[in-house]
Amino acid sequence: MDWPAVAAAAAAGLPATDPVVVTLANRVVACSASARSAGVRRGLRRREAQARCPHVHVVAADPGRDARHFEGVTAAVDEVVPRAEVLRPGLLVLSVRGAARYFGSEQAASERLVDAVAAAGAECQVGIADQLPTAVFAARAGRIVEPGGDATFLADLSIRQLAAEPSLAAPGRDELADLLWRMGIRSIGQFAALSRSDVASRFGADAITAHRFARGESTRGPSGRESPPDLDAVMDCDPPVDRVDAAAFAGRSLAGELHRSLEAAGVGCTRLAIHAITANGEEMQRVWRCAEPLTEDATADRVRWQLDGWLNRRREGRPAGLPGPIITLRLHPVEVVSAAALQLPLWGSSGDDDRLRARRALVRVQGLLGPESVQVPVLSGGRGPAERITFTPLGDEPVPRSDPSQPWPGQLPEPSPTVLLDDPVELLDASGNPVRVTSRGMFSADPVRLAGDGRSGRLRWWAGPWSVDERWWDPQRAGKAGRTARVQVLLEHPAGRDEVGDQALLLCYRQRQWYLEGAYE
Amino acid sequence: MTVVMRVDEHPLNRAEQVERLRRKMAEVSGRASGAGGSAPRRPMPSSASSSSSGNLLPLPESLTDLLPAPLPRGVVAVLSGARSLPLSMVAAVTAAGGHAAIVGQPDVGLLAAVEMGADLTRLALIPDPGADPVEVAAVLMDGLDLVVLGLGGRSVAPTRARAVTARARQKGCTLLVTDGDWHGASARLESRVCGYEVTGAGAGAPTPGCGRISRVRLATRAMGRAGGHARVVGG
Q1: pLDDT at position B8, please?
Q2: At A291, is the secondary structure helix, strand, or coil?
């Protein structure tokens, strides 16, 4: 019952002997042993607990913290006796039969468990009994109940104890215990002496469970967790892989192996980690994240791309490359989903036949040209026309750089330029001096001419500057970008070429320089 | 084999009649030659690329009244001039449920396409198709309904062009060629900007410093064999 307090003390870095109470809704739900000896009880108000024990450390309840700190204890117990079942953080159940045989006796097994938990930094009590609920109460008393002695052990306990352990009791158990108390049934032994049919006909279904428990009749045993199946595919490369074609072969066979184990487990992989260990012992890893479960070919492609990238960078001597030839390759499915997502319908199509056909064609092009060659656009938030589209490589999750549903004040209205450019240009005033945007967001002089690569001439019309109010709160990026503003201009057609009309351009001012950002055509 | 034709009560115009016959023939030839067999002798758009408009490519409204006959799927068209034209066709096709790809145009402003109604989930971009963009386009024809191919000024040999044109017909994928020429294209569309509308300017010349561009006016011209499909069908 004290686990939340122990976990809170561990999280706050306090010694286990300090008084700690954990409160929920202003009531104490758990306290440490030293706080209890100072008179703090569960159910007290926080203020009252502080009054009884003035130097107590008060923490709010956090089930996540309890579970997190308990994981270490679970792991320590797993080392001694595998397949422990966690009833709640602070309470573990396991089958003692095998352990007792291995360690010689139940006593020896429980000592080993106490030692293991102590090594993990916690104190514990062990109880052994025939039935799971009895064992929980035996653990509170720190007793080993001899075989067949469950009912005898429980008989002397108060009837209130029926509701003491929340992980074993149904929600209405408090009321049942209270009712039995008022009826004059004060101990579990008296409750057990009632006939089953009387209990069943007078109280609810939960009372039957409680009655079975009180009699020490058999209930379910501990069902420990299985260790998760090992889905990794590992390959030792002999001779070490140093060429791209060899890496491609290795990737293909490894992908086949991985997918056989994934199929056997009935799952598909959506996030794949590729590890490589090189001859001089260095390890490289990259996680590939995909929008859809990977097929075998897609896995093989990704392994090939990754190894290709590492090996090529090594050849060019760039820093992120592999420091040596690869001796071990490992594929580790980081995130798996149910394989139903991979299943094709038996009859007809699932309605997205066209989509799959298009996707196959695009994947083939991706295989020809490389992972980054096929880009999928997704609408993103932003103000300029270029930043409002995010490109992600095909197969990756299409995540926009920023949220398009947020308001973006200062966004340019329709229409957007159909050609996006990024060429430096000069905007000149009547006397040929460059036009700047002042700190008040105005032109330093009216622009008259545009001078740039291929696009020069007089301006027929201009509008702006519309300053972009962003990132001034971010010293790193604002320092680089400086004042940003956008202007639309209408460039007069060059004299003598009548068939070419005016040209509308979007200019962007940043870092004290004009850039041609787009053309409307 | 007999083909039963139902004659509708209401009179059909020539284009509709031709369309109906084409569809019938596609059904018949599809049955005769099998699904995945060799290309039918009569180049027919495949019926796999189904949409509400059958074998016709969804077109933007501005183009429907311009072209003498609607563009069937699986043709090659050369577009030149303003960039809005291919983007509006991409928008129309993706909005109608088709899939499109833009090859070799890294500077395309997709936001403009979105404003024209494009569905970005059905669009892919191949900014750098490497040394042979035609090859990439030919691969893409397998699964897509529309491929916009920017040749970047390169020319394509007539024999190659013929092979790719035949593939486009067989797969029912429309190929729009920009920035270059294509030997034997069925349609040639040229559009250029003939003016801009500026908000607040009214009919007169816009005042510098006021308003913003609200619309781009395009003049589009169709040339070449755009109207010739109807006659090709009979022979």
Answers
A1: 45
A2: coil
Backbone angles phi, psi at A342, to 5 degrees: -95, -10
A448, closest residue in chain B (CA to CA)? B208
| Nearest-Cα residue of chain B relative to residue A356 | B143
Restricting to A residues 408-467, those with a Cβ less than 8 Å away from any Cβ of B are: 413-421, 446, 459-463
Please indicate if any CB of chain A lies within 8 Å of the CB of B202: no
For residue A292, what are its two tokens?
A: 């859809």
CB distance B83–A418 less than 8 Å? yes
Q: What is the pLDDT of residues B22-44, one digit of tens each?
A: 777 776 655 444 333 333 333 33
pTM: 0.57
pLDDT in the model for residue B4: 45
Average pLDDT, integer, range B178-200 = 82
CB contact (8 A) between residue B198 and residue A375: no
Omega cis (within 30) before A377: no
CA nearest to A457, candidates A521, A503, A407, A405: A503
Q: How confident is the model at residue A349 (pLDDT cuts 50, 70, 90)?
A: low
Are A323 and A242 in the same domain?
yes
**Sign of the CA dihedral running A438, A442, A448, A450:** positive
Final residue belonging to a domain, choices A211, A226, A241: A226
Contacts (Cβ under 8 Å, ≥6 apart) of B100:
B90, B93, B94, B122, B123, B124, B144, B145, B146, B147, B148
- My answer on whether A23 and A44 are in the same domain is yes
Question: Any bridge partners for residue A486, and if so which?
Answer: A466, A508
- Chain B contact set for A374 (CB, 8 A): 124-126
Q: Do B206 and A379 touch (CB under 8 A)?
A: no
Residue A428 has pLDDT above 50, yes or no: yes
What CATH number is attached to the domain comprising A142? 1.10.150.20
pLDDT at B210: 79
Q: What pLDDT sits at residue B226?
A: 44
Cα–Cα distance for residue pair B232/B43, rounded to 1 Å: 11
Is residue A108 assigned to a domain?
no
pLDDT digits (tens, 9 = 90+) for A15-34: 878 888 888 888 888 888 88
DSSP string, A48-60: HHHHHSTTPEEEE
Domains of chain B listed by start with CATH number? 14-192+217-234 (3.40.50.300)
Mean of pLDDT values over B8-35: 64
ipTM score of complex:
0.70
> For B178-207, what is the mean pLDDT?
79
Residue B58: list chain A partners with CB under 8 A.
none
pLDDT tens digits for A449-487? 888 877 788 888 888 788 887 776 776 665 555 678 888
Q: Which amino acid is at A392?
A: T
Contacts of A163 (CB under 8 A, 6+ apart): A169, A173, A174, A176, A177
Domain endpoint, select from A61, A83, A99? A61
* Full residue range of the structural domain in which residue A477 is found: 419-520
User: In this complex, which of A357, A385, A488 lies closest to B212 when CB atoms are compared?
Assistant: A488
Those of residues 166-195 in B touching chain A at CB distance below 8 A are 192-195
Residue by residue, DSSP assigns B171-209 as: HT-EEEEESSB-TT-SEEEEEEEEEEEETT-TTSPPPTT
Cβ separation of A362 and B143 shorter than 8 Å? yes
Indicate the pLDDT class of residue B50, thresholds 50, 70 and 90. very low
Q: Does A511 touch chain B (CB under 8 A)?
A: no
Reported as a pLDDT band with limits 50, 70 and 90, residue A182 is: very high
Closest alpha carbon within chain B to A416: B112
Which residues numbered 330-369 in A keep a CB inside 8 Å of some CB on B?
Answer: 354-355, 357-362, 364-365, 368-369
Q: How many domains does chain A have?
A: 5
pLDDT at B102: 92
pLDDT at A221 over 50: yes
Compute the distance between CA of residue A154 and CA of residue A134 in angstroms, rounded to an integer: 7
